[in-house]
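Reply to dn_fold:

You asked what the input looked like. This is it:
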Amino acid sequence: MKWLEALEPESEEGLEGIEAWLEGLGVAHDPQLVRVYRLHILQRFHDYATAEPPSHPAEAEAHARALLQRAHDDFVGSDARSQAALRIHRQAARGATAEVPVAHIGRGRVG
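and this is what came back:
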């Protein structure tokens, strides 16, 4: 996503963390919601940014702001399981389960 990388400042730190992106783009957000759904919001933003690049480079910042606002707002009044932003939740929604034999639980390998 070169278009998104172009928005990062040229400092060594860049934009690190969801809070930096939200503040850097001027996105209105609920700090408590961000603390709880940080990874989910970032994953949803990544999904939107990958699927919907801006139509023109000059629109990149406004487009990123809108996508990040949308990703944040997806979790307002909702929860992680309902939104299924992470793979684990999408698998659970499909009924996928993982089985781990009891012999594989522990510090060392059995056998």
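Residues 31-51 form the longest helix (21 residues).
Hope that clears it up.
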